[in-house]
Design brief:
The complex is a heterodimer of chains A (about 280) and B (about 160). Chain A has about 280 residues and is of the alpha+beta class. Chain A has four helices and eleven strands, in the order E-E-H-E-E-E-E-H-E-E-E-E-H-H-E. Chain A has one domain. Chain A is globular, with a radius of gyration of 20 Å. Chain B is of the alpha+beta class and about 160 residues long. Chain B is built from five helices and five strands; from the N terminus they run ααααβββββα. Chain B has a five-stranded antiparallel beta sheet. In chain B, helix 3 packs antiparallel against helix 4. Chain B starts with 12 loop residues before the first helix and ends in a 5-residue tail after the last helix. The chains are: A alpha+beta (about 280), B alpha+beta (about 160). At the A-B interface, loops of A face helix 4 of B.
């Protein structure tokens, strides 16, 4: 995957009723020296779209690395990062309809859309991207006002979390109803009735030069939906290093990740599910 | 995670090692007086100490390593452990970098973590089998090659010439 300059929604598979539960676009950067008063100032800049505010524990820094043996992100607990200033909580600025969130901490900015039981349809990547750009713009205005250096990105991620109800007369282990070619057939020697199953798929994404820079991760695992019906959680995440630390590279990464995730989603899921989700291209 | 003995947390390195020891118990390395896991335990303990260094830790103007550098180094060396490579000695540098070093069996390898994805590798081999190297190595490609060769020498148990 390269990081093309592209129109995000152009010529990608699309679904009228996608099973999306949550989408998150995030960037991690070298910590900017903000204080709690600055977080309050950031909320003031964003309060029109995100009037509510709650605090959450900070996310530890994590990185995609590449080598002979795949190793997932290795989070270092913030309390072990003793050489850095005291860690602020992760602020969640939440929209009035509870569907959009901006998460901010000294080294992270994440914008989420999440489905609510009686809420709106998925507003599409272009809207998540617009909100991400607006939130990042607010962060840059704040650090400019404070005379701090602008965020220099070292990691980006785009995450799509889907929840797909298990079809009638099927169970969690019947993943071939959701994922192409994932039929579990233990053979005649073991006639066990499987209760559930999980699948993890990883793909390293490379630049034109062949150098790896990101990893796509697909995880399918048992879950329950809002109504506590049996469902599959199908999580697709692209995480990695932008070409440079500047914001244009961050957006290029997210656009390319969007292309990769949507293509992957359409490729690994079954025709029957596509009909249910009303696929069109 | 991926089935090998990966550290789950710097807070309790031994917790991670407990997952992957069955094979080692079944096939002990003959002639060794200490497990290679001891080396990794010490490495993670040192990394934790490095993570907690304050500015001026060397009594002068030594910079505390930046949290992202520590996190990146932790993940990078975890990938070396997962590949079955020998544990490094970890040291801080006054400029905030973290040094991972191997000096054994005639090979000197230094991997310097200046920042996330900013890695320099230095390789010298007294036997001349490995070409000398001193350059940027952001994906640790050269470092891994040298460490594989080092692991081979360690297993063969040949003495240093």
């Amino acid at each position: 995957m390269n990081e093309p300059d592209m129109t995000p929604e152009l010529s990608l598979p699309s679904f009228t009723r996608p099973p999306l539960q949550e989408v998150a676009a995030g960037v991690q950067f070298a910590p900017v020296g903000v204080k709690s008063v600055d977080v309050a100032a950031l909320h003031t800049l964003l309060a029109e779209e995100y009037p509510n505010w709650v605090d959450a524990p900070p996310l530890p820094p994590s990185f995609e690395t590449f080598g002979t043996v795949p190793v997932g992100p290795f989070p270092v607990p913030p309390m072990l990062l003793g050489g850095t200033p005291p860690w602020l909580p992760r602020a969640w600025f939440i929209s009035a309809d509870d569907e959009h969130i901006v998460q901010a901490q000294p080294d992270r900015l994440i914008v989420n859309w999440r489905r609510q039981p009686q809420g709106s349809d998925y507003p599409r990547y272009t809207e998540v991207r617009r909100r991400f750009v607006a939130a990042h713009d607010a962060v840059e205005r704040l650090v400019d006002q404070r005379g701090l250096s602008r965020p220099l990105a070292n990691q980006c991620d785009l995450s799509y979390f889907n929840v797909v109800p298990v079809p009638e007369a099927a169970d969690w282990s019947d993943m071939d109803r959701l994922l192409r070619g994932m039929r579990l057939d233990p053979g005649p020697g073991w006639q066990a009735s499987l209760s559930d199953a999980q699948v993890s798929i990883r793909k390293v994404l490379r630049r034109e030069s062949g150098v790896p820079f990101a990893r796509l991760s697909v995880d399918c695992l048992p879950a329950l939906d809002f109504a506590r019906n049996k469902s599959w959680a199908l999580n697709i995440v692209v995480r990695g290093q932008p070409q440079t630390g500047n914001f244009d590279s961050v957006l290029a990464f997210l656009d390319a990740a969007h292309l990769e995730i949507v293509s992957c989603f359409a490729a690994i899921t079954t025709e029957a599910m596509h009909m249910e989700w009303e696929k069109h291209t | 995670m991926h089935g090998n003995a990966l550290p789950l947390s710097l807070g309790d390195p031994m917790e991670a090692f407990s997952h992957g020891t069955a094979t080692l118990h079944a096939f002990p390395r003959l002639g060794r007086t200490e497990s290679p896991l001891d080396g990794w335990r010490v490495a993670y303990e040192h990394l934790q100490q490095i993570a907690n260094l304050p500015d001026g830790w060397d009594g002068e103007e030594g910079a505390a390593p930046e949290g992202h550098t520590v996190a990146f180094a932790a993940q990078a060396i975890a990938s070396l452990q997962a590949a079955g490579l020998p544990a490094p000695t970890l040291n801080p540098s006054a400029d905030g970098a973290i040094y991972a070093e191997w000096h054994m069996h005639g090979v000197d390898i230094e991997v310097i973590f200046d920042a996330p994805y900013e890695i320099t590798t230095l390789i010298e081999d007294a036997r001349g089998a490995l070409p000398p190297f001193e350059d940027k190595d952001p994906m640790m490609v050269e470092a891994r090659k040298a460490l594989l060769a080092l692991a081979g020498r360690e297993q063969s148990g040949r003495p240093v010439r």
